[in-house]
C-alpha cells in the first residue's frame, strides 16, 4: 500500500479484546487486525490515551483515530511516520476528534499542521499522543495562543503538553 492510498478503514465496533489476544496480534505483526483496531477504538472512547500510545509503540507504528459526528470510531494503523489524515468513506462530518500517535514526543509537525489547516472546517478537536504526555488543540473561538497568527491555523489553539493521568482532556463522549 502506498502512502497516498492509505485511508481509515470503515468504522469499528469498539470493544476491548483480551490483552493476550492483542499481544499475540502485535507480536504476529497482525497490526491491521480487528483485534487491534477494535481494542484501540474502545480505549479511545474511554479516553485511555496512554494505553493507545503503548499499543502503537509496541507495534512500532503510528495510529490515527477519527471520531465522527455520531461518535463512530475509525482507526488506522500506519507505518511509523506516515499517518495521513483522510476522511473515511461513510463518515459524517464534522469530526469531533482526530487523534494520532508520535513515536516519542507530542508536537504538531508540519504534516499535522497541513492536515489541521486543510480540514479546519471538518474537525473540532485534535490530540497528538506522546510517550508520557499529549498535546491538544481546539478549533474555533478566541484562543490566547493559536498555531499561527493568520490563516486557517489561527483557528486552532496552541496548548502546552499535558502529562497522562491529569484528566481534563479525556472528555470524549
Ligand atoms: Zn503528527
What does this molecule look like?
With 173 residues, the protein is of the alpha+beta class. The protein has four helices and six strands; from the N terminus they run H-H-H-E-E-E-H-E-E-E. It has a six-stranded mixed beta sheet with strand order 2-1-3-4-5-6, with helices on one face. Strand 1 (61-67) and strand 2 (73-79) form a beta hairpin. The chain is globular. Mean pLDDT is 88; it is low at 1-5. The structure holds zinc ion (ZN). Zinc ion is lined by residues 100, 102, 109, 112, 128.
Task: Give a quick rundown of the structure.
By secondary structure, the chain is an alpha+beta fold. The chain has four helices and six strands, in the order αααβββαβββ.
Mean pLDDT: 88
H/E element order: HHHEEEHEEE
For the CA atoms, what is the radius of gyration? 15 Å
Task: Extract low-pLDDT stretches.
Answer: 1-5
Structural class call reads alpha+beta
Distance between the termini: 33 Å
Largest sheet: 6 strands, mixed
Beta-strand content estimate: 15-25%
Percentage of residues assigned to helices? 10-25%
Entry keywords:
single chain, 173 residues, alpha+beta, 6-stranded mixed sheet, 4 helices, 24% helix, disordered N terminus, binds zinc ion
Amino acid at each position: 500500500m502506498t502512502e497516498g492510498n492509505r485511508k481509515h478503514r470503515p468504522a469499528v465496533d469498539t470493544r476491548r479484546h483480551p490483552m493476550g489476544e492483542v499481544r499475540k496480534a502485535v507480536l504476529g505483526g497482525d497490526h491491521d487486525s480487528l483485534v487491534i483496531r477494535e481494542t484501540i477504538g474502545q480505549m479511545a472512547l474511554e479516553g485511555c490515551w496512554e494505553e493507545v500510545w503503548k499499543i502503537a509503540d509496541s507495534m512500532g507504528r503510528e495510529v490515527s483515530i477519527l471520531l465522527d459526528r455520531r461518535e463512530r470510531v475509525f482507526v488506522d494503523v500506519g507505518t511509523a511516520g506516515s499517518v495521513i489524515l483522510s476522511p473515511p468513506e461513510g463518515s459524517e462530518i464534522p469530526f469531533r476528534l482526530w487523534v494520532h500517535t508520535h513515536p516519542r514526543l507530542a508536537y504538531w509537525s508540519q504534516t499535522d499542521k497541513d492536515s489541521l489547516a486543510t480540514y479546519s472546517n471538518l474537525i473540532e478537536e485534535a490530540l497528538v499522543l506522546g510517550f508520557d504526555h499529549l498535546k491538544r488543540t481546539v478549533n474555533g473561538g478566541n484562543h490566547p495562543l493559536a498555531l499561527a497568527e493568520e490563516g486557517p491555523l489561527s483557528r486552532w489553539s496552541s496548548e502546552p503538553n499535558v502529562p497522562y493521568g491529569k484528566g481534563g482532556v479525556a472528555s470524549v463522549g
